[in-house]
Design a protein that fits this description.
3 helices; 17% helix; globular; DUF6266
Length: 213
């Protein structure tokens, strides 16, 4: 795919001969028409496709979080989802083809400063409790009204859960009531913070695997 930097006629949209013109974020692109594959995919291509499918299937439901967590990264030429996908691809895929799995401890849903605070997550009697340090680090411009974004993933039912309303840093803790179908097996929990404008964002922290039963 090519990028139109300048030209007598500027960018264009639609099909013109063997190329298609389009634009995104005021950048004009041209790309060739799709060509139907005539050769079977190689094993290496199948391996890459399997990795792409596994990771993207996991990340897509997290789009609202990734938009905040990666919203400040390469926004001129890449979407937050593009950046999150590329930065997670090399470190999160485990196992051998075709039995790839995700290493949840390596997944990041936000990238930013690393504050080194203390966080924890436990589940008792159908309630997930997440706690964090309320001390504000001025080096990272933390504030008491920073929002705490919490994600729980249950691989057994392939569903995500979060707090109905993001708590604030000053709260120090939040209780999330688990639906009945979440109260079984194990879950994985992540947490990251962002200011009210979503500009000062922390790196997401993996809080570990939590027994939900």
């Amino acid at each position: 795919m090519g990028v139109i930097r300048r030209g007598a006629n500027g960018g264009f949209k639609g099909k013109a001969g063997s190329v298609i013109g389009s634009s995104w974020k005021s950048i004009d692109y041209i790309k060739g028409l799709y060509k139907k594959r005539t050769k079977p995919a190689t094993e290496e291509q199948l391996m890459q496709q399997a990795k792409f499918t596994l990771l993207m299937r996991f990340l897509l439901p997290l789009k609202v979080f990734i938009r905040i967590g990666y919203g400040q990264r390469k926004t001129d030429t890449h979407t937050p989802m593009n950046v999150a996908f590329q930065e997670n691809l090399d470190r999160t895929i485990a196992g051998d083809y075709p039995d790839y799995t995700l290493d949840y401890s390596q997944v990041r849903i936000a990238e930013g400063y690393s504050g080194g605070t203390t966080e924890s997550a436990t589940a008792v009697d159908g309630v997930l409790t997440v706690t964090w340090d309320t001390v504000q680090n001025t080096m990272y411009e933390q504030k008491e009204d920073d929002l705490m974004y919490i994600v729980l993933y249950h691989p057994g039912i392939d569903q995500f859960l979060t707090a109905p309303t993001p708590p604030q840093r000053a709260d120090g803790t939040v209780d999330i009531t688990l639906p009945n179908h979440f109260q079984t097996g194990q879950g994985h929990v992540w947490l990251f913070t962002a200011d009210r404008k979503g500009r000062n964002v922390s790196r997401s922290v993996y809080l570990g695997e939590v027994a939900l039963a």
